[in-house]
Amino acid sequence: MKIFIDCTHTAKHTYKNTGIHRVVRELTSELLQISSDRTDIEIVAVMFDGSFMRRVTNLNQPQDDHFIKVNKYLDLTKINIKFQALVLKLKNKFINFFYKLNLIDWFDSNSVNKKGFLEFEDSIIQSGDIYVIADANWDLPKTYYRFLQLLKRHKVTIVVICYDLIPIKFPEFSSKRFTKAFTKFYSDYSTLFDKVLCISKKSAEDYLNARNQGILASNNSQIVQSFRLGGNYYKYDLLLSQENNQYNVKLQKLLNKKYILVVGSLVPHKNIKTIIAAFDLLIKSSHDDVFLIFAGNKGWDSETDNLIESNKMYGKLIQILGSVTDAQLDFLYQNCYCLVQASFYEGFGLPVVEALQHCKPVIASNGGSLPEVGGDFCRYFSPTQPTELYEALKELLDSEIYYNNLVERIRNEYVPFSWQESAEEFISYLYN
What angle do CA 321, 322, 326 make, to 5 degrees? Predict the structure, then answer.
């Protein structure tokens, strides 16, 4: 049996390292490793090229990405990335235009052999094979729907990984354009899904609720389950090329600093306003030697960016590092004082388990799945109450004994969950 892992978005945008991209890379890597040790399954990483799937051979994010370095080529590279995004957008519009005119009919001619079997790189796709939509594929051309229909006709099982339904559940946290595309994807495509594997019990509950409300469609036998994500990742040697990497030098300057770490894109649902408000209170309470470090790209919401950049401590105690590689993120976790995850809502909350795996205290909101993921190892607060976050931070900073006891408890009692375990659990749900 073949299991195709659709990694389209991650394969096309290797420079990105958001939560979904990191999950796709880690999960696919472990699945491929498991496949190499078994004879009953074959894992194949693929991407959709506008008409059919083709094999993906490399998902790794380059560890020396120039766009995240502080150098003279930064602006040029940003322009290049925007140009690539524009080309892809125009390509999708071109395909959609001919799709509307019914001029595109290459599926059967290019993918079905003379005997009527579906074929992929000279091998037969058999009934019972599994196609997993693992990536953020809600912006693909309309031919993607037709492609999945073709798989269904040949009795291939369609599985989707549902990370969260934030744009549907909380449309105010997303741009109107993204909310429209995301909602349309799930409302249109949900009839094709045989299985929906969510990344937390809370996400599974949200999916079932949306289905019961008629927001999402369902075929009669659709199964909705949840599996757990891993918290480890491959650790590159961050300092091997530090003399040629200005960005790593910037990280090195944090070695002797006490800093609060925030991981993730700077988008509205991450609740940056509460973090800034709590940090301002912290500075006023004589803790003026603590840094606030954001490791994540600026988002689509300029108000969120301005909220940080207009603060009088921006560039001093408050810094935005932008997107970071896994190696750089590992460095940040190892040396941070604590992690703050203040989101109004999360489908999982990967930084929480990653920080705990590094034996770092975590102060998280009680939004979405965060209490489910962090258990009783985190200190929780209401995402609408900056004072609660401030008080939790102050308690850590005011008592070295309290802080050390918390770290020791995490080190002795927290049981990390690896990506290998996540991949094995994932495969078990594909079979059952």
Answer: 90
| Backbone φ and ψ of 2, nearest 5° | -100, 140
Q: Dump the DSSP string for 176-212.
A: HHHHHHHHHHHHHHGGG-SEEEESSHHHHHHHHHHHH
Count of CB atoms situated within 10 Å of the CB of 400: 9
Contact 190, 217 (CB under 8 A): yes
Mean pLDDT by 10-residue block, N- to C-terminus, for the chain (432 residues)?
95 84 94 92 94 89 45 42 52 52 50 74 91 94 93 95 96 93 94 96 96 87 94 56 53 88 95 97 92 91 91 95 88 96 97 97 97 97 98 96 97 95 96 78
C-alpha dist (Å) from residue 284 to 5, 316, 327: 50, 15, 34
Would you call 424 exposed, middle or buried from its count of C-beta atoms within 10 A (0-12, 13-18, 19+)? middle
Residue type at position 80: N
Is 366 in contact with 382 (CB distance < 8 Å)?
Answer: yes
CA distance 45 to 43: 7
- The answer to whether 324 touches 376, Cβ cutoff 8 Å, is no
